[in-house]
Structure formats: structure tokens, C-alpha cells
Amino acid sequence: MRIAVIGGGPGGLYFAALVKQVAPGHEVVLWERGEAEDAIGFGVVFSDGALGGVQAADPVLFDSVIDRFVRWESVGVRYRGRTISHDGYRFSAVGRRSLLRLLRERCAHRGVELRFASAAPPLPVLRSEFDLVVAADGVGSATRSSRPEAFGTRLEPRDSRYLWMGTDRMFDELTFAVVETPHGPLQVHAYPYAPGHSTFIVETTDRVLRAGGLEQPGRSPEDTARAVAALLEADEGLLGGHRLICTGSRWGRFTSVRNDRWSDGNAVLLGDAAHTTHFSIGSGTKLAMEDAVALAMALTDNRDLPDALAAYEAERKPAVERMQRVAEVSRDWFEHVDERIGLPPGEFTSHLLTRSGRISHRDLPLLDRDHVERVRNWFALTLATTS
């Protein structure tokens, strides 16, 4: 079988490596319009157990990835100068560039033909020259956009805006922060992914962007980072003097992507081209890699191509739709965070952590780390003065 893959993100690369692993005789060619090292992004996060499918499908890749993981077991909510943390979670994160580099190495080792800095040929050409075309070309998929009626595409651009940045402050947990600026609230989603490095996503509204002068034509990434950092100084403890890093990313608008059908003839969608979930639940890369496993396995199950593509969709679509429903609730909570500003910190934190319905208020033994630190300091001072 000749297989064309469009897109050099985690989903496309992982599928290409897997299908060559289980069917070495297949010819697999992958196109990516960007250079191999041009990937934008800082870290990607996985909940505990999220890479179980990766471990089963490719133990060598799994071992390479976990060697680079940063792990933590709590979620913190920073609001009005206080951080309230909830233990009992287990997360891991890895640098996106490190993950992509490992995936490229697996592809090269298995004989995938990688064509970076090269746009894929038009879909009709690929359809005629290859047995299967896998569109892993992201939320703005040109493949999907060329055939929206065939895929039954439904796009829903949202009101909120976001900027994916990094920082040289290493957070010690997944941290949600709300900073009240003179122009309106900024929300932060931050987590560590390598020693001395954290992902730092800022979310807000068009109104705050305009009022704060955060989005201006021609502004350099460095100036954008400085402008955001200046507004975040309203909470002195959030960055603690550390810098923000913005390397080419721009203010985006989250778009909900759904498709009634994931395949059209010999073309099939994978990852964000097929579906999106809001970044507040951190599942985009996980879902794309799970798609890759399911599609590779379906193609090697002695089915003809239409049956294999139908089996892939039947397995993945229900699981993805469940995650999308959870993500929608989470997304709506953050889009309307101003309705909860003013609540006491404990109540605000409880609202945030139970927003998706996956945990209840009874599951929240909250730990206020600032309060614990104050108590520790008090005991230390008491012991010092009485000894």
C-alpha cells in the first residue's frame, strides 16, 4: 500500500512510524510545509495513563518519551494573590520539540520518507497516486477545507483569544491563574515541561486585547511577551520576576472542529483536522496519538480500505465526542470567568476544579500552599524564640 501523510505534527509522525512498524512493506511519504525544527510550542501535557496506548504500540518510543518527562501530582488555582492546591492528580509533560524529534527519529529508522519544508501536492493528485491519504494537517486543515460537504465539517470559532508562550519560571504543578488587570481579566494555564521551563498560555477576550494594547500589527514576539508580562504584574507572585518567551506564536481564536464523517473515499482525517478540544483540558496531542494508533491498527487487520476506515472512525469518534463534551463545559467556564470574579478564593477554586463535572465538591481536600507556608514560618519562629 502507498500512503501519503499530510502534516508533521505528533499525530502524523506517530501514524507514519506505527504503520511502517506493523506493515514494513507499505510505502509511506510524509509532507510538512515547515522546517523540521520550526515547530512552535513549548510543552504538551498528559494525564496519568494517557500514554498507555503508546506504551503498548511502541515501547521503545514510550521509554524515550518518559525519560524526558516532568511529573507532578497537584493542580493549583491562583486567584487574588493566593494559591490553593489540590493534590491527587498525576500529570506528565514533555517539550513539544523533543517529542517531535523523537517521532522523526522513529520515522527515519523505519523507512518513512520525510519531506520537510515541502507543501503536499493537491488532494486530487495524492488521491490518484496513493492508496490512502491521511490528513493530519491541523485545525486549519486544507484537506478538510477543500471537501467540507464530503466530511460534514462544522466549525465554531469562539470569542476568547489565547497566546501560547513559555516562561523560564518552572511551576511545580498545573496552575490556573486569574489576574485582574485594569482592562479586564487575563487567565493563565501554566505547567512545567523541562528543567527551568514551563508552558504559559494566556487567555482573554477581544475587549481586553484592545484595551490593553496587546495585539498590534507588526509587533515583535518579544514586545508581545513584554506587554503581557506588564499586565500580569498586577499579581506580583505569578511570574516572580521571571520572563515570558514568545517565539513566533500569535494571538489565536479557539475553533471547535467537528466532522460528521472522518473519511471521504481514500482520504481520512486525523487529530485536530478531525476534531478539537479546548486546551484547558490538555488532550489535543493525546487524542491525535490515539487516533494514530487506531488508524494504523485498523489498516493492518486484514480489512479492505473502506472497512478499515469505517472501523477507525467507529472506534475513535465516540471517545473523542465524550472528550469534546467535557472540553465544552470547561471552555465555557473560562469564557465566562468574569461571572465568578469576586467569589472568595476557596469558593472560586472549587468552582474551577469541578467545572467539567468529572470530580465533585466532595473530592476536594484543598490545600492552600500560601497558608501552609505561613504556618510553617510561624512554627519556625516560635521554636527559634523559645529555644
UniProtKB/TrEMBL annotation:
Residue spans crossing the bilayer: none
Signal peptide coordinates: none
Classification via InterPro entries: FAD-bd, FAD/NAD-bd_sf, PheA/TfdB_FAD_monoxygenase
SUPFAM superfamilies to which the protein is assigned, alphabetical: FAD/NAD(P)-binding domain
Sections of the chain in a coiled coil: none
Residue stretches making up the FAD-binding domain: 131-325
A molecular-function term among this protein's GO annotations: FAD binding
Keywords, sorted A to Z: Monooxygenase, NAD, Oxidoreductase
Protein name listed in UniProt: Anthraniloyl-CoA monooxygenase
Species: Lentzea fradiae
